[in-house]
Amino acid sequence: MKLFTRLALVTGVAAITALSPASSQTVADESTPEAALDIPGGGQLLAKPNDPNVRRATAVVNGEIITGTDVDHRLALIVAANNDQLPPEEIERFRAQILTNLIDESLQIQEAAANEVEVTNEEVDQYFVRVAEQNFRKTVPETEAYLASKGSSIATLKRQIKAELSWNRLLSRNVRPFINVSDDEVNAIIQRINTTKGTTEYRLGEIYLSATPENQEQVFANARKILEQIQQGGSFTAYARQFSEASTAAVGGDLGWVRLEQLPQSLATAAAEMSSNEIVAVPAPGGISLLLLIDRRQVATSDPRDSTLSLKQIAISFPAGSTEAQAAPMVKRFSEETQKIRGCGAADDVAKTLGADVVNRDSLRVRDLPGPLQQIMLDLPIGQSTPPYGSMADGVRVFVLCGRDAPESATQESFDEVMSRLEDERTNKRARLYLRDLRRDAIVEYN
After folding, report:
1. Residues of the signal sequence (predicted)?
2. Dihedral angle sign, alpha carbons of residues 18, 24, 30, 32
3. Which residues have CB under 8 Å from 141's CB, separation 6+?
4. Cα gap 270→262, rounded to integer Å
């Protein structure tokens, strides 16, 4: 990091000054390089030079080394998640946060081991297979090659997985059993849900950064930079997993469905005024939260966006290197022909004429579609197609609506679901306190 480099240079100058003879007052002839450096003849090195093949530690956490390579590999994941467009001036800022995350992971793994909570390599490997398939849509060998091409490695992902599994298993044994939620509390919430039927629930994502009066300015600056990167196309889920200090980091910061009265006042006020997919920075108890509004719905009320669709997707792609001017005639013909479709039975013939691909999609919820398509699908007559949708990079497609089933009557949370939700909330709060205590007791040496 720039800061560490600067400190290292200052230390080096100080060391040379200390080794110079204090009694010497000779003014060197600056025209002679040897004289300017004041190198005595016949001298010898008093210590071995640094071995470039030895990885130096960035921090040592209770005796466990975190190297600069560890930080580099984790940083590469963040850069990749931002389509390799992370501004160079932000790299060092993110390095500091990544180092903090790696220290926390070390503490979590160490605490789990101290309590004889074991996570085997086989379990980590099995979880990694799911991550490769779901997050990267690749096989394990393909994911390994992809990460290596980005300057990262599967080792850094597996370390993060091991920390999450170890921490969750430790909480399940040492924290969750001591969380008490009474039947009266659950019944009171169910009664409140019944009386608030029709009011709004919000599905939110959160990246929480804790702050103290001493570091608040720096933490808030980091939050603003993360916010800017996400607004410019960065992955909220990826940033949440890497930077959020809440236990929901493991699920990409997803808070699930909540009502405003369940949130701290500052978050509730912000959520009430947000639009879908908007992200804002909000002061929160003990720090700052980056809040993302994923969706909203009415409590215990059917939502048309929960309707399920049966579709046919007709898509064309453009040859590599095509310009918009070259693609325009293709898009015009594609639009004209697909708008003539009347009934799903005709979709395959039209696609064949256009040389387009056809994919059948069933049981797709309206709310799972991109925002611009949701209302179109609710208004579209059965058997007709949407306007063309897409881009030069991803190709252009239309969706032919073959069927639309209205949502079932809304069902409210069951007693067990409410109980589980309250237990999760209290476990998460205890987990933050647990990690805070581990940080306070840790011996961390920085280089």
Report:
1. 1-28
2. negative
3. none
4. 13
Out of 3.30.930.10, 2.60.120.10, 2.160.10.10, 3.10.50.40, select the CATH number for domain 200-298.
3.10.50.40
The span from the CA of 300 to the CA of 305, in Å, is 14
CATH 3.10.50.40 in the chain is located at 200-298
Return the amino acid letter for 145. Answer: A
pLDDT at 8: 28
Q: How many residues does the chain have?
A: 447
Q: Name the strand (E) or helix (H) holding 249.
A: none
Mean pLDDT in order along the chain per 10 residues (447 residues) = 27 27 34 42 49 59 93 88 72 82 95 95 94 86 92 93 95 93 92 78 93 90 90 86 85 88 90 91 93 84 81 90 88 91 90 91 85 84 89 87 78 82 89 92 90
**Reported pTM:** 0.57
pLDDT recorded at residue 300: 64
Amino acid in position 367: R
Question: What per-residue confidence (pLDDT) applies to 411?
Answer: 57
Distance CA 100, CA 9 (A): 24
Give pLDDT, residue 85. 72
As given in the structure block, the two tokens for residue 253 are 């910061």
Question: ∠ CA(229), CA(231), CA(233), 5° rounding?
Answer: 75
Residues 236, 208: Cα–Cα separation, whole Å: 12
CA atoms within 13 A on the CB side of 392: 9
Q: 144: how many CB neighbours lie within 10 A of its CB?
A: 18
